[in-house]
Amino acid sequence: MAPALRVGLAGFGAVTRSLAPSIQGMPDVELTAVAAPRQGPRDEARERYGVETYASVEAMCASPDVDVVWVCTPNAFHAEHTIVAAEHGKHVICEKPMAVSLDEAQAMAEAIGRNGVRYVQAHSKLFDPPVRRMREIVSSGRLGRVIQINTWEFKPWISGAPRRAADVDTAQGGGVVYRQGPHQAEIVRGIGGGMVRSVRALAGRWHPAFPLGEGDYSAFLEFEDGTAATMVFNGYGYFDITELTWGIGEGGQQKEVAESSQGGEGRRRQPFYGLTVVSCERGDIRQSPDGLYVYTDAGREEVALEPSGPGRREIAELKEALAEDRPVFPDERWGMASLEVVLAILGSSRQRREVLLSHQVPCPF
Q1: What is the pLDDT of residue 258?
Q2: Is the alpha carbon torsion for 222, 223, 224, 226 positive or negative?
């Protein structure tokens, strides 16, 4: 039997507090360490999970009791902490966005390759069963070639929760383009095959309390094969997209929505990151509460999908890749390509022009 994969969490904020219980509940995975600069979170982690704690990520990376570092620190530190982990021979799982610049992402990729470790791009929507199955249907050719991909998300990201300064400051990797754009980039790139040619976009800062970070964007993407895609995000909170998704949100939990005709509050369904519609030559695809609807000349067919189960999928992907001695997916090159789309949204909005891309990589399935 292979030894347990020992995980160290870099940072102990909201993300890591949700991660820790799911890591502990996985077979052959052990949470062994937490790094946090403040004493209070370190004490909490030690008391709740019985882990070793460290005041710096570098100190934790020097521990012989850590095999993989899950980077959950603020976006501006993703590159620094990924590189130090790789230099200590640790595998890396890094939250989105991969980094805040392409130079940082390139340095991360070089460190991963130089040290022979694996990198998993975390919080990828390609781990969601509906998105993965959409890609499988498209790549099978059953409906002909894909011609349009449209994804919308409206939710109270700006106004729905207290935000730290870094969360809403673009200069620090905040605002909805950095914080939410990677999700839509993963959905669109994954379904469309990965190879985006160009981006034209506008991003807005319309919330008076948060003038330093974007609260919305609208982006048009063109793939190398001519497929068109749109990504629309609005985080101001007046309209919630769950009104159009049966009251089901990102985690697959059903919300209380007055217009919803579905019951079953608390039942976990398939996760909805907004509303995504994929159009092909011979049909359309969108999510259903428990899978996908496929529309063709024969009518509407529902494809039921198994739920993804509790916890996050990234650690399982890393474990399986190590056991099978294969590359992981999504990896550092995929993460950098999605970051390039995010940065192109910001650049196109500032420059009022189309931005051509050069770091794209194909989807392997």
Answers
A1: 37
A2: negative
Average pLDDT over residues 102-121: 98
- Biggest alpha carbon distance in the chain? 62
Predicted confidence (pLDDT) at residue 264 exceeds the cutoff of 50? no
Total count of residues recorded for the chain: 365
* Alpha carbons 57 and 84: distance in angstroms, whole number: 8
Closest C-alpha to 158, from 234, 241, 218, 244: 234
pLDDT band for position 124 (50/70/90)?
A: very high
Considering the domain architecture, whether residues 188 and 101 belong to the same structural domain is answered as no
Rounded distance between C-alpha atoms, residue 286 and residue 187, angstroms: 12
For 3, which DSSP code?
A: P
DSSP character string of 287-304: EETTEEEEEETTEEEEEE
- The 10s digit of each residue's pLDDT in 216-254 is 999 999 999 999 999 999 999 999 999 999 999 998 988
* 175-192 and 332-351 helices, crossing angle to 10°: 120
Full DSSP string of 84-139: HHHHTT-EEEEPSSS-SSHHHHHHHHHHHHHHT--EEETT-GGGSHHHHHHHHHHH
Q: Is residue 359 packed enough to be buried (19+ CB in 10 Å), middle (13-18) or exposed (0-12)?
A: middle
What type of residue sits at position 344? Answer: A
Output helix, strand, coil percentages for the chain, rounded to the nearest 5.
Answer: 35, 25, 40
Q: What are phi and psi of 281, to 5 degrees?
A: -60, -35
| pTM for this model (two decimals) | 0.95
* 40 and 146 co-located in one domain: no
Ranges of H-type helices in the chain: 14-24, 39-49, 57-61, 78-87, 102-115, 129-140, 175-192, 314-324, 332-351
**Crossing angle for the helix pair 14-24 and 39-49, nearest 10 degrees?**
20
Q: Which domain holds residue 297?
A: 126-310+341-356
Residue 354 CB coordination number (10 Å): 14
Domain count across the chain: 2
Q: Which of 30-34, 168-172, 251-255 comes out lowest in average pLDDT?
A: 251-255
Q: What is the CATH number of the domain that holds 31?
A: 3.40.50.720
CATH, residue 276? 3.30.360.10
Q: Is residue 130 part of a domain?
A: yes
